[in-house]
Specification:
The protein is an alpha+beta fold and 364 residues long. Among the domains are: 110 residues, Helix Hairpins; 72 residues, Urease metallochaperone UreE, N-terminal domain (HSP40/DNAj peptide-binding domain, Sandwich). It has ten helices and 17 strands. A four-stranded mixed beta sheet has the order 12-13-17-16. The N and C termini lie far apart (79 Å). Bound molecules: zinc ion (2 copies). One zinc ion binds next to loops. The site of one zinc ion (ZN) has 8 residues, from loops.
């Protein structure tokens, strides 16, 4: 099934701000909320608008969606990823009162087990060279993250000393009746004391903190060709671990300045000074590229700031085929010092061109 565009679903434009997106969602959520709407398809509709809002209200997910569209986005984010960190209470507290929160979560994820806390994301800043950005690379990085304690298997209990939770009698769930503007709901929620597992620890594991330990890890990370400053690479499940699974690792890319090249998206610009004589007569000059120095023919009468384009000598395109170009900007160098003879020759040159000009003598 082809997914509809998130902006289209919410009926907002791409440059709508957060408030406008929130307003559009609130309106649709009220319209389609299954507790209110009589329409059979309302639950599907409600899920659809909620998914669109969960993505577009999150700066990072929105940016990834804008950049990669549905196809690329769905590769990177599962349904659970999409709704993670999405604060239902924030928005539904305003619309429906807090009672709706639990039922909405269950609607998306069914069980109560899944509501266990997932580990937090980690971030890492990685500096790479321009060549590495241009052609892609693989980097080893060291991170410290929380992992499941091997001594107690993450239970946090010494010698597996788990006992039944007294709060829920080992069922992991508690029932509660709540009033809301739309009637009385009897709600089954996850037991807070045991987080839904039905078990609590009798004697804590001495090796860890509630089943988790800090650990140093070395990871090998593939950096795709064409990345630029500020790009973020998401490495799934390499963040901190918790009962509900591991968070993700986000690698922020910093590309080192290169003395030879300036980057302009996928193109590179290099500036080469040449003498007035070479520019006038035409010449062959040495030009650096990412791979090796090459020779470039400059025609006679080349003006300063002329740009020559070397095709496919730039950065590999991240979202497309091929490479950008290398732009060679030629600057005609004006000499800062002249010998006596050079001065005389230039005076003659000026005279020949019809100019009345004389070099100052004895001052500099
Ligand atoms: Zn342990
Ligand atoms: Zn319990």
């Amino acid at each position: 099934m082809t997914k509809r565009d998130y902006y289209e679903i919410l009926g907002v434009s791409k440059d709508s701000n957060k408030e406008e997106i929130k307003k559009a969602y609130k309106k649709l959520a009220k319209q389609y909320h299954p507790d209110i709407s009589k329409d059979e398809s309302s639950e599907e509709k409600f899920k659809e608008v909620s998914e669109a809002y969960a993505v577009l209200s999150d700066d990072e997910k929105k940016q990834q969606y804008d950049q990669f569209g549905h196809a690329g986005f769905d590769q990177r984010f599962s349904q659970e990823d999409i709704f993670r960190n999405f604060d239902f209470t924030d928005i539904f507290g305003e619309v429906f009162g807090n009672s709706a929160e639990g039922s909405i979560f269950d609607m998306f994820f069914g069980g109560s087990q899944r509501r266990q806390k997932r580990g937090s994301n980690l971030s890492y800043e990685l500096e790479i060279s321009l060549e590495e950005a241009a052609f892609g690379t693989e980097k080893k990085i060291n991170i410290q993250r929380s992992e499941t304690c091997p001594k107690c298997d993450g239970t946090g209990a010494k010698d597996n000393s788990l006992i039944n939770c007294t709060e829920c009698n080992g069922s992991g769930q508690v029932r509660a009746t709540r009033r809301s503007p739309f009637g009385v709901f009897t709600q089954v929620t996850t037991c807070r004391d045991c987080s839904g597992s039905g078990k609590v620890v009798e004697t804590p594991c001495p090796e860890c903190n509630h089943g988790f330990i800090r650990k140093d890890r070395e990871l090998s990370v593939k950096i795709p060709a064409g990345v630029d400053n500020g790009n973020q690479i998401r490495v799934s499940s390499e963040g901190n671990s918790d009962k509900g699974g591991s968070g993700d690792l986000y690698i922020s890319i910093f590309v080192k300045q290169d003395k030879r090249f300036e980057r302009d998206e996928d193109d590179l610009v290099t500036t080469i000074p040449i003498s007035f004589a070479k520019a006038s007569f035409g010449s062959e000059i040495e030009v650096p590229t990412l791979e090796k120095d090459v020779k470039l023919k400059i025609p006679a009468g080349t003006q300063s700031h002329t740009i020559f384009r070397l095709r496919n000598q730039g950065i590999t395109r991240l979202h497309n085929y091929g490479r950008g170009d290398l732009l060679v900007k030629v600057i005609v160098d004006v000499p800062k010092k002249l010998t006596k003879k050079q001065k005389k020759l230039l005076e003659d040159f000026a005279k020949e061109s019809g100019e009345k000009i004389k070099a100052k003598r004895g001052f500099f």
